[in-house]
Description:
By secondary structure, the protein is of the alpha+beta class. The chain is built from 15 helices and 18 strands. The chain has helices at about 40-50, 90-95, 100-110, 125-135, 180-190, 225-245, 245-250, 260-265, 270-280, 290-310, 350-355, 365-375, 385-395, 400-415, 425-445; strands at about 1-5, 15-20, 20-25, 25-30, 55-65, 65-75, 85-90, 150-155, 155-165, 165-175, 200, 210, 215-220, 255-260, 315-320, 325-330, 335, 345. The chain has a five-stranded antiparallel beta sheet with strand order 8-9-10-12-11, covered by helices on one side. Strands 4-1-6-5 form a four-stranded mixed beta sheet. A three-stranded antiparallel beta sheet has the order 3-2-7, with no helix packed on it. A hairpin with a 2-residue loop joins strand 9 and strand 10. The chain is globular, with a radius of gyration of 24 Å.
Amino acid sequence: MKMLLVLFDKQGQILLCRNPSGYSVPTNGAEVDEGFGFGSPQEENRWFWENCGLLVYRRYICFYMDYCAAVFELYGEGNVGKEFIWMDSGSLDKFIVGNSLTVLLKAVVKNYNCSKTVSWVNKDGFQPYLNWALKAAGCDTQLTYGKIEQIKNTYVSTIFRFQAGEEIFYLKIPGKTYLNDAVQIEKFLVNSTYGLPEITAAYPDGNAFLAKAMGGHDLSVETDMIFLEQAVEQWADMQQRFTEKQDVFSSKIPLLHNYTAEGIMKRIDNFPSEVSGIFAFLNEQSNAVDAAKTGQMIREVKRLLFLLAKCKVPDTLCHGDLRPGNIRVVNGFCFLYDWGMGMYGHPFYALVHFLHVTRRQLPQEMQEKIKNTYLKQWETYGTGKDILRIYETVERLKDFFMVLADADWLMETIEAVGGKVPEGSMDSWLLMRRVYYFRRVLGRFLAGDNN
């Protein structure tokens, strides 16, 4: 499907293209599917500047039937030219052909300022955050095209980049159901040998933070083999330092999901009903065969959790999404960021996850080398064979950990929206993506496919 570019002005008028047959919603010709959600908005923002002279930032994306709409905020005014027209949104029925398109546009008009899952979808939009960030950076840059770039806009966060003096800054605004990186860094990650982003300032309500650019580049499994072992060594050291200071952090641990063996055992019997509750919200009935299969899989999960609970390796801080794209290499040193899925649980899950997401890029020999390097750091808690046996237990629980994390995120989203999710809204995008990931990992878990 082609992506429609939906832009409103401060009066609620929509920008349309004039054409021989009437009017149409602009499109830059980009083809997208329902998996679209992590692309940079820069190409779309540039389209408005080059074709309309308008400075815009993307708010969110939504889908309806055969249409995808990217929804934007307008900053300032531009000369849109005679090939475009601003039209009152109440007149859409008269000029836009296509029932499903009209339904989508009306839904976007209605829900343009409404979201229960992100803080930037409201009548003020990004403006307060951008003004605050520029002031916090001591920057007199005005909101003009190219000065403040929107480099990311997804259902979990939005990120802007700008320069103040010699420094480059990043403004990150996380979603409300995605744990704020600044909270993680401030509460947990002190005195660590792992490098961390330098947080310059936090927005007064905690919904955004400003960080200085670290330089360097994201870790690449193709070109940074030398750093892979270093990264997992540093990670093991960081986790062990956290275990040594757990008394200091004990009051903060409730901020994280409790994915310890003991914590999961307390809720494991209720997990099938949690899954049924998710499908009930989606107006779907869980398949009886899947329900029976879930029961069988849960019995095996309980057996593995019992073994894990008896091991001597202590629970600790886990990143939750350890992958090359969240590790920055700067002057030969590794920095770790994007802590939104942080959790408290068995340390080995982080490496299991890392090797899972890099399984198609890393040769088996290199995977084994990384695994052995990491596990060696834990041999103070047992022999090499003991530590390997514990790792293999965690590895067999991999898909369950993933489905549990996605189920929790989805249930938190459902709780946040508090009922029916409107079409054409930011929240519908978030829910659609979370449902997609939940279905994928649940299917893999039920199939017993650990690849």
